[in-house]
Amino acid sequence: MKVERLHRKNNLGLAGWIRGGRYGLERYAYTLHRITGLGILLYFLLHIFATSSRIWGPEFWEKTMDLFEKPVFKFGEYLVFVAFAYHALNGIRLFITELGFGMGKPQRPVIPYKNAVRRQRPLLIVAMIIAFVLIVFGGLDFYLLGN
Amino acid sequence: MNENNSTKNTTTVIFEILRYNPETGEKPKMQEYNVQVYKGMTVLDGLNWIKENLDPSLVWRSSCRMGVCGSCGMFINGYPRLACNNQILKISNKKLQIKPLPNFDIIRDLVPDLEGFFQKHKSVKPYLIRKDIQEQNLPTGEYFQSPDELTNYIQFAYCIKCGLCLSACPTVATDERFTGPQALAQAWRYNSDSRDEGSDERIKAVHDEIGASRCHFAGACSDVCPKGVDPSFAIQLLKQDFFLKTLKLRKDEKETHVIPTAKKYVPNPKIPEAPKPTVKK
Question: Model ipTM?
Answer without folding.
Answer: 0.87
